[in-house]
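Q: Here's a chain of 296 amino acids. Please give me its 3D structure as tokens.
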Amino acid sequence: MPVVTVEGRRLPLSNLDKVIHPDGTTKGELLHYYAVHGSVLLPHLADRPLSLLRYPDGPDGGTFFTKNVPPGTPDWVNTAEVPRSGGGTQRQLVVADLPALVWAANLVAEFHTPQWRAADPAMADRLVLDLDPGAPATVVQCCEVARWLRDRLAADGLTAYPKTSGAKGLHLLCPLRPTAPSGAVSAYARALAEEATAALPGLAIATMAKRLRPGRVFIDHSQNAARKTTATPYTLRARAAPFVSAPVTWEEVEECADPGRLAFTLTDLPARLERHGDLMSGLGTGRGAAPLPAAG
């Protein structure tokens, strides 16, 4: 088993030649992606308890979701005690530096984080809306809904940052200052989704009923609940190819007429980062942050 040194930490890395994604991408290539792009990913993991959707044998080999600290976690990897949804607490990873990120990436997992920080789990510092298209709708229709939501959020003083989900749809995230109770954020997001449904009949829908979703964009507001998580910006996803949950520009959202134009893999990221930098840096710095408006 090869051992590498990352910022002074010696890390054993396993099965680097193992093909993880059906397109031929290996585990070594996944680890290289995270090691090279840690500087943009780490701010979005900072101080947030990490949940892992693991796929060590590839997306076709089965996936499993875990929140608890994995067995064998080094003692230098940060952890935090956070509330369980059913009561009590559980200990979760908090990735704070590049060695911890590479160690976690060696587990082969999607990274998912909540809308709150470990130090204050009752208070959200951002709002998220997950736009999920029901076939035959695609990300093109998600972009239409996203534009309406951007303008509506702006009317309430909120700045929306878009990213691809890394699957079929889009995520919109808004920084909140000051923080707000997760219940209040959920109520506002639900009211906004219902308002969008009324404004965009036949295109947007705010309910999860699958029979109503074909051809429409489901605005999933539920991920604002304290117990829920969302794919972290720049995480790889367990898909046939190593798609990334990639930040995008509003110009790209406005001009999207082809679903393939908003699908990015790990090989696309270097050029995008050189061109745009971290399009979601404002989430961490609070650029564009505003107080949560009252629901309704």
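Q: Can you summarize the key feature?
A: The longest helix spans residues 182-199.
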